[in-house]
Amino acid sequence: xxxxxxxxxxxxxxxxxxxxxxxxxxxxxxxxxxxxxxxxxxxxxxxxxxxxxxxxxxxxxxxxxxxxxxxxxxxxxxxxxxxxxxxxxxxxxxxxxxxxxxxxxxxxxxxxxxxxxxxxxxxxxxxxxxxxxxxxxxxxxxxxxxxxxxxxxxxxxxxxxxxxxxxxxxxxxxxxxxxxxxxxxxxxxxxxxxxxxxxxxxxxxxxxxxxxxxxxxxxxxxxxxxxxxxxxxxxxxxxxxxxxxxxxxxxxxxxxxxxxxxxxxxxxxxxxxxxxxxxxxxxxxxxxxxxxxxxxxxxxxxxxxxxxxxxxxxxxxxxxxxxxxxxxxxxxxxxxxxxxxxxxxxxxxxxxxxxxxxxxxxxxxxxxxxxxxxxxxxxxxxxxxxxxxxxxxxxxxxxxxxxxxxxxxxxxxxxxxxxxxxxxxxxxxxxxxxxxxxxxxxxxxx
Length: 446
Fold this sequence. Notes:
This protein is of the alpha+beta class. Helices cover 42% and strands 21% of the residues.
């Protein structure tokens, strides 16, 4: 039943092209955001009341992904303003519907359409990098602003963290995106903020890997492997300067700054954050010539190799060292760290080559000599093991061949005896036996 108190028509497009009249208020404050998969019922009519389509009559809700231009513009605009359980009338001018072409036999060209909509539900937008639903967003208060923060933007946010309806933190904080760990901001909030608009408030549901992980948080009373919820408001932000806008000198200064930040985080054993800083440093170096960037870039990739080594990502270690050696084929550290990565990946021969390079460049390097000795021993053991395996294999083959030959001989003897038949075999059977065998039988009978 229509609520008589709800009669105001809202202009959603700003030009009268999409108007919305609420028939029944929805519940809660949350709105679906771009990327949410919404489920609703609709009935579409022309202005004269002629119905051209209805999901209600089909008995199957209509579903689509909001903001992906998979429906007419008016649907994307109108549905984004609806709360769960809300019913409304959406009036759509042709330019926000099917335009001058119309659609099929039921919607003529340049038709203004009306849709009665009922919002049923929606699945929250997935902001996690791997789209594994590790970071889900529900917009509580939308913003008309278009700009969003970029990585390393300076943000001012209000955070309210909850675990099982219990508030464990409520505060305002200012920090640079990518460095939130220094301010106790969990990674899921940082990742999500790059999708926020200024003044937006959204509710985030974070799985453990984007919150407090397997350790939990004793101070906040968060148990291990807990899913938590944050309500986040982006109050202000200042975007980080785009790297391509800087000249060579400015780029080198910024690259050095972020390289130093990376080194600081390595000392604090915050390796994931350190990698972010080092990647940013490398971004700035893209504005510089290879010669100008060589020394700093070498340090950046060596530090990246160290971070990945601490994280047991040996393939990334190898790749970082490869980058160093492309610039400087005399880097002892690059050969040594790559050798360690090759060992961890099981490529002992390649690791041996790297440690030999270290020894050649730095003959007094005892660590490399120890690794060479160890690898040679392992390769020797592996060779001996292979030799024994093959020796055993050949022995088994020889025994098998011998057994097969004996079996074949026994089978031949059996066949000969079988062909002789019984001693008292009938005469007609004996006719087919070799004459010598018959003679022998006859002699034996005598």
